[in-house]
Amino acid sequence: MAAAYPGQARAVQILQDAPRPPQLIVFDLDYTLWPFWCEMYTVNDTPSLYPESRGILEACRELNIPMAIASRTPTPKVAKAFMNKLGLSGMFESVQLIPASSGYDHHSAQKDTDHLPAIHRETNIPYTEMIFFDDEFPNISKVARLSVTSVLVSLGMSVDILQTGLKQHAANGKSQRRQ
Question: Mean pLDDT in the chain?
């Protein structure tokens, strides 16, 4: 299949060359796959992805690498509507859009106690075989304690960030075998 999206061909190559491919890649939505908070919009608005997000998702789909969504949002209906509008529905093994009172609500839905455990239950994939991408450092540090390779996304998902995650995942596998 010809690469139709920015970054797709490079993402395919990087994923194929990964010394330790993940069994599951988990993405946050807001400021990870797309450049906004859902709660700032309505279901009638038109969403967009970061430039290389679609290429990465299509590369994973092309290579049959399962994906999941872990997002804390006060507007899960907007997130679902945007996923539908962007053609993302059906791409993921698990979609955890757990409501929160606000995007800054760090007390209700937690990635380490709600999202990732639910994804683990649904997929039966060990935490050590997952990579998690998120734009919030507290989520990264908490999820890393589950032994999930956790990667901070500072300016949106990109092929370079994907490559960083794959390298970190390979290194984590080496250190786990030594224990």
Answer: 89
